[in-house]
Amino acid sequence: MKTLFRSLCVTAGALALSVGTLSSAYAVDLQFYFPVAVGGKAAETIQSLTDEYSAQNKDVNIDAIFSGSYQDTVTKALTAARGGKPPQLSVILAVDMFTLIDEDVIIPFDDVATTDEDKAWLNSFYPAFMKNSQTGGKTYGIPFQRSTPVLYYNKEAFKEAGLDPEKAPATWEEMVEYGKKLVKKDANGNVTRWGVRIPSSGFPYWLFQGLAAANGKRLANEDGNMTYFDDPAVIEALEYLVSLSTEHKIMAPGIIEWGATPKAFFEGQTAMMWTSTGNLTNVRTNAPFDFGVAMLPAKISRGAPTGGGNFFIFKDSSDEQKRAAVDFVKWITAPEQSAEWTIATGYVAPRPETWETEKMKAYTADFPPALVARDQLEYAVPELSTYQNQRVTKIFNDALSAAITGQQDASSALKEAQEKADAILKDYR
């Protein structure tokens, strides 16, 4: 895939310093992989921030490389690491932490960030985000491109349906009640606007966790070696998801595409949608109507998974590269830079200090919906993350698909998924 980022400085070996000898014009060269998974200004903002850091640290050359999707990024990083040429730094899904540890390609930040100031920095992030960033008393990932799913709704559609445009559905029951009022049909009985859209393609397990968590259940333990796919609360959550289409008829049947969901919302094809807070700036820019943002509806309690990417440092790097990588990560997650990133993209600023900057205070005063995801962290659970994470997640996604498309009932699909996950994870217990 074509690199969207230019090299910020001349790379190592590009300048002859003596006859027959080539070496870097800089003290340290870093290669940095970065994925973009949502709309908005993520790529442009990363380039701008990396340029700014380079201007302030002229002895560090950062080659920032857009590496495609999250899946593309972890695949490329692992392939490069196995070939002995990994990036020194990468943003990768937080849930891939156990896989990266199992592959022995990353190091904990604690190995490099050893000063009192460093330790205070490691302890400065929201605990909800650190649940997918730490294991065994070590910090392997630093939260950066982090999110939770939230409910977006069309206030004009709410008014048209006789609903209070300032009041989103707070419970599962209310989402069904509102959805029925929001569905629109043409003269032939064909649906022209659905009540709600919960994507089920790509990574359906993530949004589904908003239902499981609201029903009081996580999908895996903190050690990454046990799943709870067939727990009664998880089965009930899947039955509810399926019922939105089959029984209540407020959501389109079958698999709903993740990438097409914001466009469907903008075009009035759905009155409500579940998607990442990382789409917040995209929605603010492109929705042709007044919209609201709310926490996910509750069953037993509020609940939502965290999501998104962390910074990881790769093991096969020099000590100087590791120190430079930590310094860059500290800089880009500092309050002022973090505020710029959050405002540009809609991702949740991962440190409380960021929300106290004048820049963020002005932003949230002008745009209060930006506070919803932050406030939802109080109820957040860690995203599904296990050893052999891609295999286990695919098993669970396939079970969700089987139930959503009517190939299996929720209970049978999830019990089968649990058996398959157990067969993989038993070796890690």
CATH-level-4 superfamily name of the largest domain: Periplasmic binding protein-like II
Mean pLDDT value = 91
CATH architecture of the largest domain: 3-Layer(aba) Sandwich
**Describe the biggest sheet?**
6 strands, mixed
Report the principal-axis shape. Answer: globular
Which range does the strand content fall in? 15-25%
Structural class of the helices, strands and pairings?
Answer: alpha+beta
* Rg, alpha carbons: 22 Å
Note the total helix count: 18
User: Which percent bin holds the helix content?
Assistant: 40-55%
Named CATH topology of the largest domain? D-Maltodextrin-Binding Protein, domain 2
Q: For the terminal residues, how far apart are their CA atoms?
A: 39 Å
- What is the CATH class name of the largest domain? Alpha Beta
Low-confidence spans: 1-25
Notes on the protein architecture:
It is built from 18 helices and 17 strands. The chain has two domains: 15-147 and 307-381, D-Maltodextrin-Binding Protein, domain 2, CATH 3.40.190.10; 149-305 and 388-428, D-Maltodextrin-Binding Protein, domain 2 (3-Layer(aba) Sandwich). Helix 1 runs antiparallel to helix 13 (335-345) and helix 17 (389-404) packs antiparallel against helix 18 (410-425). It has helices spanning 42-56, 70-82, 97-102, 116-122, 127-130, 155-160, 172-182, 204-214, 232-246, 261-266, 280-286, 319-332, 335-345, 352-355, 358-366, 370-376, 389-404, 410-425; strands at 15-18, 21-23, 28-34, 60-66, 89-93, 106-107, 134-135, 138-139, 142-147, 149-154, 184-185, 191-193, 272-276, 291-294, 304-305, 307-314, 380-381. Strands 3, 4, 5, 6, 9 and 16 form a six-stranded mixed β-sheet that branches. It has a three-stranded antiparallel β-sheet with strand order 13-10-14. The two termini are 39 Å apart. The chain is globular, with a radius of gyration of 22 Å. 41% of the residues lie in helices and 16% in strands. With 429 residues, the protein is α+β, with helices and mostly antiparallel strands.
